[in-house]
Amino acid sequence: MLEKSLDLFFSVTYIGLTIVFVATVVFFERKNPASTIAWVLVLVFLPVIGFVGYLFLGSGFRVNKKKKYKIKARSDDLYDNHIRRHLNIADALKFIEAHENAARLMTYLYNEGESVYTSDNRAEVFIDGKTLFPRMIEDLKNACDHIHLLYFIFNNDRLGREIAAILTRKAKEGVEVRLIYDSVGSRAFFSPPIFRKLRQAGGEVRGFSPIFSNFDSRFRLNYRNHRKIAVIDGRVGYVGGMNIGDEYLGRNKRLTPWRDTHLRLTGSSVWFLQERFLMDWGYSSDMDFDERLNVPKFFPECRSADEGRLGVQIVSGGPDTSESPLKSALLTMINSARRNIYLQSPYFSPDESIMDALRIAARSEVDVRLMLPALSDHWLSHMSTLGYARQALESGVRVFLYHGFLHAKAAVSDGLVTSIGTANINNRSYLLDFEVNAFIYDAGLAADYEKIFLHDQSRSTELTLEWFTAKGRLAQSVYNFTRLFAPIM
After folding, report:
1. Helix, strand, coil proportions of the chain in percent (round to 5)?
2. Average pLDDT estimate for 145-157
3. Which of 201-205, 249-253, 289-293, 428-432 has the highest mean pLDDT?
4. In this structure, are residues 53 and 79 in contact, taking their beta carbons and an 8 Å threshold?
5. pLDDT value at position 247?
């Protein structure tokens, strides 16, 4: 009798807890049905463990999300006038008149994300770390006033130690050095020893949302700064997919070849990488960064000899925005494409809006190609990626698996618009992580990146429905099952 009573008690308790936990998740995730379904599945199978996981990883428990994450630039006449005085509005209007489809994207990004179009830029594209890091190291060594770095991963390996040593020497020379690393991405539960000498030399180092800094930071565990930004003297900027680590130089034996994309910018677009860094610095320092308004120092005018002719917009996204400007920007690129759109992403778990846009474009005889990695550093994500890849294939999208680890986050459309940055085509990049992309409006650069894509395509396998069928029913079941959890991965 006692045993039956205990069984009944535990059964009722189990069911009651499950109902309470599910109701909590449904309430906090009510604006994101896909995420809600995924978390409910977790809670049904593992109610207590699942709810503890949700406390740390779920999107509902955002502590001071608007107050602390969304640090707005202070209104300052000097700063505003400086920006407006040196932006060539006539060039933007001329471009809009000549390129109606691209103008939709440009206008949207300005209205939604306050992303200003600048037209005096130069850009260099790098497709591996062996060409990127020597160029970046040269710029770091030539810094005269300040160096600002923000990286999701800053590893304590050969490359990391080399760059840390350069930063330390520059700090000793009197150059202001500020560095932000993501505490989870860099696996830095405490302050990494690699930065000790840099701090001693006067450099400032901050971990983004440290795990053990205070109690409420534990409830921000899932919101990471995935950006990769470098700004040197306010004149040179870097943004793209590569972090600071040996693997980006091809030293990871399992994930080789490692194919990535990064961008070096000069011109007024660097101001907006600078602004993004300074706002993130303000959050990481837990204080306003008043020095950001030192306009001549951090936002120097572009010398006429250095001026380029590329149009660029810098676009940021993250959980501090009510909408997802980077997801909407991709949707706009897909919907505006008339001839082709080529996409590269290491992780692919789009929501219905992106999948519908890809299907409509493909069936409207737009040449839509999607490139994904054959190798991956996250097994579950890769399985769900293949499940979504099959759906894209069935919609008319040509899908390619690159023979290696494709870590590039890039898109090029109609021989005119190129997007290079940190955002993957997945729920995490659009809702959970802080990201930044550069949108470049230039036929020459777009043509160059199309050639890069086609070269990558020659090193890829084009997927077919027969390819998936040959994998067997068990593999199909794994692809479909892991897709259920894609919205929370």
Report:
1. 50, 20, 30
2. 96
3. 201-205
4. no
5. 95
Residues 6+ apart with CB under 8 A from 258: 128, 129, 247, 248, 250, 252, 404, 405, 407
Q: How far is C-alpha 432 from the chain's CA centre?
A: 10
Model confidence pLDDT, tens digit, residues 323-364: 789 999 999 999 999 999 999 999 999 999 999 999 999 999
**Would the pLDDT of 92 be above 90?**
no
Read off the tokens for 17.
């807890």
Catalytic residues: 226, 228, 233, 407, 409, 414
Residues with Cβ within 8 Å of residue 216, at least 6 apart in sequence: 63, 64
Nearest by Cα to 165 from 140, 184, 143, 142: 140
| DSSP track, 437-487 | EEEEE-HHHHHHHHHHHHHHHHTEEE--HHHHHHTHHHHHHHHHHHHTTGG
Distance between terminal CA atoms of the chain? 45
Lookup: tokens for 307:
């001026």
3-state secondary structure of 177: strand
What are the tokens at 312? 């660029």
Q: Torsion over CA of 273, 431, 372 and 358, rounded to 10 degrees?
A: -100
Q: Select the highest-mean-pLDDT range: 27-31, 57-61, 96-100, 124-128.
A: 124-128
Query: Are the C-beta atoms of 326 and 429 separated by less than 8 Å?
Result: yes
